[in-house]
Amino acid sequence: MADDVPEPTKAESAAIRSIKEDDVHKICSGQVILTLAVAVKELVENAIDAKAKNIEVKLRDKGLEGLEICDDGCGVKPNDLESMTAKYHTSKIEKFQDLQSVETFGFRGEALSSLCALTEMSIITRHRDCNEAIKIVLDHKGKIISRSCHTRAQGTTVLLTNLFVTLPVRRRDFERNIKKEFAKMCHILQAYCLVSKGIRIRCTNQTSNGASSLVMMTQGREDVLSNIYAIFGRPKLGEIIKLESPFKDSKGDVLTQDELISALQTNTGDNVNITKDDLFLLYNTEFALEGYISSCAHGSGRSSKDRQFFYVNSRPCDLKNISKAVNDCYHSFNNSQYPFVYLNIIICRQEVDVNLTPDKRQIMLINEKLLLILLKRALHLTFDQIPATYKVQNVSISDIQTKINNTDLESIDLIPLSTAEKFRNVLSQWKRTGDTAGKAPNVPAKRKGSDEIIARTLKMQKIHKFLNNEDIKLSGQYDYKSDPDTDGEVDKTIPIDRSQLKQESKTFDELVERIDCKSLTPQKSACNFVSLSNSSKNIVNNLVSIDENTDPPAIVELDISDTETKEHSNICSQFFVTLKEIEDNLKADEILKADNENKAKLERLRFKSEITPSQNKSAEDELQKEISKSSFAHMEVIGQFNLGFIICKLDTDLFIIDQHATDEKYNYETLRRTTQLQYQTLAIPQALELTGVNEMILMENLPIFEKNGFKFNINSNASPTKKVSLLGKPFSKNWEFGKEDIDELIFMLQDAPEGTICRPSRINAMFASRACRTSVMIGTHLKKSKMKQLIEHMGEMEQPWNCPHGRPTMRHLINIAMLLNTETNEND
C-alpha cells in the first residue's frame, strides 16, 4: 500500500472505543455537504440570514475549479471569526426549544465547518462597525491558518476551491457528472431567487478559457411575480395565474366555517372529517396559500415537472404529497401537460418540523391531510374560472383491463387453433417416425397455458394397475413359471399377450427393459431384461420353496447372449424375483428419473411469463435477462406463421417474432440515429426568452439542436433571457415544431450523458410514423433470407423488445425439450 494512504484498521477490538475527533469531523461533514447544490445553498442561506440585499454567486468552470459567494450583509465581528467555522457554533438559537420559533434558514452551526472539511476555504468579511475587512484562511479542521487585512465593503465573501478534495470517490463522481450537478445547483438557486423578495441575486459562470456568462439574475423587486419573470422570462398573457384562497367563494367573499366545510365536501366528494377546532386554528393564525400556477388551458403548461417550487414559510423544500396533489388536480383539467408551480405555504411555525435531514429540505407538517383538502379546493377555484376548459374524465387502466379480461379474452380463448394443433401433431409424428408427412387432424383446441404443460407429472397409475392386476395375460417369447409349492402346478406356462401389454402401459415395458435382473438394485437402471428366443438352450427350472409371507417369485428364463454362448454354450442361470421387488425397484427408478427431469426442467424454465398484455413487463424483463444481442445471430428460422409472425429457435427454445413490429423498431432507431432534419427559415426571428441556465445548455449543445432541425442566432452581448433567437425550425408534411420542443430538448440535455442523441417526443413520434409506413406489413409473405435479416437486425437495436408504439416484438413460445417430454408422457 502507498505511503500516503493510511492503513485501515484490521484487528478486531474487544473494547468499544471512541472515534478520533478529526475522523468524526470528516465522517459527519460528508453527510452535511452532499453536492455542489447543497454547498451553494448553505452559503446563500447564510447571506440571506445576514440581511444581505445583494448576493452574487460566481462559479469557475461550473464549480469544478471553485466558487465564490459575495454579499453585502452585516458581516462577521472579528471576535467571532474563531467560532464561525467551529462545529455546532451558531448565533441563531441557544436551546432546543428555540427551534419552534426560529425564522432563519440556518440554525445548527454545521455548514461552514463541514465545508472546511471537504474543500479549501478562505473568508473575507467586514462587519458594519469595522473600518477594514479581514481575510482568513482555514484548514480542514476549521482552524484559522492565516489572518490578514483586506479591502472590501461591508459584507462577507466566501471562496471555495477543489470541492470534495478530501473525499476522492465523491470528487471523481463530481467531475464525471459535472453537467448534472450544475443543473441541480441552478434549480436550487432558482428556488431562492423566486422566494427572496427585495434581494438581488446574481449568478455567473466563468469557463476554463476565461469567458464569463450570466446564468440567472433577479432585480430585487418586492413581488414574486417579478422574480418569476426575471428568471423564466415573461410568459404570454394568462399563462401563469394567481392561486385563489380556499377560504373564499367564487365571488371572493370570505366563507364562514360551516360554509367552508360544506364547500370542501362538494370539492372532494367525500365526507370531510374536519372539526371546527381545526378551522378555528386556521382562521385565527397566519395560515395562507401563496402561489402562482400555469393556466390549465391547453398549451399553457409544460412537458415536464422541471419548474415546480414548493415552500413552507418561505423555506424551499421537497413536498411529495403536495406535489402529487397539485399535478393530479391539474391533470384533471389538462392531462397532457405539467404546470409551472410556485406554492408558498404560510403556517404556524409550531406545527412544522424542519429538523429532519441535514439539508433541511424534508419537512413534517402536523395536519397535512387538512392542508391537502384546502389546496385541492384552492386549485378548483382557480381553474374553474378559466373559460373554455373542461374536466377530463380519468379512466382507470385497471377498469379497462378488467373489461378486456372478462369479454374479449374469453372469446379469443375459444377460437379453434387448428394451425397450432397441426404443428403440434406434426412435431409428435416427427418424434416417433422421423417423418413429417401426413395431415394432422383439424381438431379445435383451446389455448393452454405453459403452466399446464409444466405441471404434468409422470403417469405412474398404469404401472400400479399392471402390478396389481391378476388377470393380465402375458404372451410372446417370455415365459413366466409359477412356483410349484405355491400353485400346486409344475411348469405351467401362462401365455403373454404382447400387444395388450403395449396398450396397457408402454412405460412399464420400457422400465422393465432397464431392470438388472441379476442385481435388482436401484443404483443400476440401464441394464436389459433379456428376452428368450426360439433357442433350444432353455434354462432348467428348479423348485424353490419360499416363505408364505412373501409374494410368489417369478422364475425368469434368460437366453445367454451371443458372446457368452461362444464361450459357454450350455450354461444355465436361475434367479428369483418377486412382484414386490419389481415394484420397489420401479418406484426407486422412477423417483430418480423424476428428480433428474425436474432439475432439467428448472434449467430449461427460463421464461415463465405468458403471452398476455398483463405480463408484458415481466416478459420483457425475462428477455433482457436471458437474451443478449449476440443471441439473435444464432437463432434458426423455422418459418412464417399466419403471414405476420416469424417462428425461430435458439437452442431448445422457440420464439415468435412480430415481423412488422421488429422491422418498425429497426427503421425507427435508424431514423432516430442518422436523420438530419431540414429546417424552414422564419420570416421574422422568434425571441425565445430562455432562462440563463437554459441558454447555456442550448449554446453548449448547438450540434444536437441543428441535428433536430433548429437554427439559432446567438448574441453573446445581449442580456440574459435575450441572447438566443430562433431563425429556423424543422418541418414535415403534417408536423409542426416550436418553442415547446426546444424546452423539452433542453430539459433532456440537463441529465444526458456526453454523446447521447436526444430527440423531442414529437420528433420521435414523427420518426415512429415514418418507420411504420416503410416497414414490412402483416400479411406479407417473406423468404427465409428476409426473415433471417429481420432477426439479425434485432441484435443491432438499442432496445429490441417493443416497437415505438409499445407493441411487443418478441415473445417466448415454449421449450422444445419440455414439449417432447410431454408428448412422450401423453403417448404412454
Please supply descriptive tags for the structure shown above:
single chain; 828 residues; alpha+beta; Heat Shock Protein 90; Ribosomal Protein S5, domain 2; 4 domains; 8-stranded mixed beta sheet; 5-stranded mixed beta sheet; 29 helices; 37% helix; globular; MutL_C_sf; ATP hydrolysis activity
Assign a percent range to the helix content. Answer: 25-40%
Outline the biggest β-sheet: 8 strands, mixed
Count of structural domains:
4
CATH architecture assignment of the largest domain: 2-Layer Sandwich
* Mean residue pLDDT: 74
Got a strand count?
25
CATH class of the largest domain: Alpha Beta
Radius of gyration, Cα only, in angstroms?
A: 41 Å
Commentary on this structure:
With 828 residues, this protein is α+β, with helices and mostly antiparallel strands. It has 4 domains: 21-211, 2-Layer Sandwich (Heat Shock Protein 90), CATH 3.30.565.10; 240-384, Ribosomal Protein S5, domain 2 (2-Layer Sandwich); 471-582, no CATH class; 608-817, MutL, C-terminal domain, dimerisation subdomain (formyl-coa transferase, domain 3). The chain contains 29 helices and 25 strands. An 8-stranded mixed β-sheet has the order 5-4-3-6-2-1-7-8. Strands 9-10-13-11-12 form a 5-stranded mixed β-sheet, with helices on both faces. Helix 2 (36-49) runs parallel beside helix 6 (178-195). The longest helix has 26 residues, at 579-604. The chain is globular and about 110 Å long. The model is unreliable at 388-420, 438-459, 470-496 and 498-570 (pLDDT under 50).
